[in-house]
Design brief:
Elements (H helix, E strand, L loop, with lengths): L5 E5 L9 H7 L2 H6 L3 E6 L10 E4 L5 H15 L4 H24 L8 H16 L3 E6 L3 H13 L2 E6 L12 H17 L2 E4 L2 H11 L5 E3 L20 E6 L9 H13 L7 E6 L4 H9 L6 E5 L3 H8 L4 E5 L13 H8 L3 E5 L3 H9 L3 E4 L3 H16 L13 H15 L3
Parallel strand pairs: 1-2, 1-4, 2-3, 4-5, 5-6, 6-7, 8-9, 8-11, 9-10, 11-12, 12-13
Length: 421
């Protein structure tokens, strides 16, 4: 590979189906290439290597990261390879005591140590290919620490993209972990030439904590536009609400099910014409709540679909259900699934938690918003949507302006404004 308009992209997750942090960068690669940029990917080993893009993988040196990465390898690549499975399982077992000791003293994400190996590998890649931009994105903060080290050593422009806030109001880990995250956030906001956030709320929050100033940018990630055929959706005998993605913690269907129960007590006839389809994983709490729901025929748990299967199924659903966590974290974040929903052409019911940015986005495109923690608000929204369904007015929506192409165009513009003259 010759030196040219290269970007060294540092991301722990890459080419990993079903993981939002990976899909975020995977989807951008074709669009970066259209902009004349050659991506040089440096990632962790959790997904198979890319075949059409320069891609180097490196493992974490600490026990927690090694066990995490080997776990992914065993789940995704050990099928039909018994020796590989045996070797990986033995390594994970041998690392277990060191992992337990590590967690006693360092209560942070498992991939924290990846910056050490990524920093060394990235330095030599930088020297060999002379990229014009170092672009770190995540996900795990280790990618940004590695980028900071490489950019400082090689004198390169560094664009850092935070897919989630590093610091937020409802912190549930240890105080030590909070101090580490806050220190990493200050490092990024002080040293990066530009810091990109995926919501304006996250940009404002980080700016208030760090004094980031005019080096902070908000770019909504978007999704790939989908050509929706007019005959692809057919209204059935029930109004089906469909949720795609995992349910865990405070992102659950408790309030939605309570709203359905209240609605069915008021109007028993509706229990025969409203259905909830869940596609994706459910934690133990969610499964228990579903089992206890007094209308057992209403909810169906389908399990996980591949991404392509999910995108196809979305376009055939009556209503797409979007659920935010009922926590302070949600006030500065927008679920990545939102953008795929918006491209599907189907109506969305968003259970939004204290997030005017997300609420405004959905309402502005003609979708329905209810307060995620308010049973009455959700009950009213479901009733209104059911009335529209009865009248045959759950029409296909126009396309969304939030596309990956527009996000990449803005990202490249930010890089050019901050890059060398």
């Amino acid at each position: 590979m010759e030196k040219g308009r290269n970007w060294l992209i540092i991301t722990h997750a890459c080419n990993l189906d079903g993981r939002a942090a990976s899909q975020h960068i995977d989807d951008r690669l074709p669009y970066l290439k259209k902009e004349g940029i050659t991506p040089l990917i440096l990632s962790g080993p959790t997904g198979p290597p890319l075949t059409e893009t320069f891609h180097v993988q490196t493992y974490s040196p600490a026990p927690s990261g090694l066990r995490f990465e080997l776990g992914y390898k065993l789940r995704t690549e050990a099928e039909g390879r018994p020796l590989f499975r045996l070797f990986g399982t033995v390594l994970r077992f041998l690392a277990l005591p060191f992992y337990l000791v590590e967690k006693i003293f360092l209560d942070v994400e498992s991939q924290w140590s990846w910056f050490l190996s990524a920093g060394v590998r990235g330095y030599f890649l930088c020297k060999k290919y002379d990229p014009e931009i170092i672009y770190s994105t995540g996900g795990p903060f280790s990618a940004h620490i590695a980028a900071a080290m490489i950019a400082a050593k090689c004198g390169k422009t560094w664009i850092a993209e935070l897919q989630d806030p590093l610091v937020h109001g409802d912190w549930q880990r240890s105080g030590r972990a909070l101090r580490i995250h806050a220190r990493v956030e200050r490092l990024i906001c002080k040293r990066a030439d530009a810091v990109v956030f995926v919501t304006d709320g996250a940009r404002r929050g980080a700016s208030e904590r760090t004094g980031l100033g005019n080096r902070g940018w908000a770019i909504h990630p978007g999704a790939v536009p989908v050509s929706v055929s007019p005959g692809e959706y057919h209204q059935g005998s029930s109004c089906r609400f469909a949720h795609y993605g995992s349910l865990a913690g405070s992102r659950n269907v408790d309030v939605f099910l309570a709203a359905l129960e209240r609605l069915f007590r008021e109007r028993p006839d509706l229990s025969g014409s409203v259905r909830l389809d869940l596609y994706g994983s459910c934690d133990r709490h969610s499964l228990s709540r579903i089992e206890a729901f007094p209308f057992p025929d209403v909810v169906t748990v389908h399990g996980r679909l591949s991404r392509s299967e999910s995108l196809s199924a979305m376009r055939k659903s009556d209503v797409l259900l979007l659920v935010q966590n009922t926590s302070d974290f949600s006030t500065e974040t927008i679920p990545s699934k939102t953008y795929e929903y918006l491209q599907s052409g189907r109506p969305i019911l968003g259970l939004v938690y204290r997030n005017p940015e997300l609420a405004g986005m959905l309402k502005g495109l003609g979708h329905t918003v209810a307060e995620a923690a308010d049973v009455g608000s959700v009950r009213g929204a479901v009733s209104e949507i059911h009335l529209r369904w009865e009248a045959g007015r759950l029409e296909t929506r126009a396309g969304s302006p939030y596309t990956i192409a527009s996000a990449v165009e803005r990202l490249v513009a930010v890089a050019e404004s901050r890059g060398p003259a």
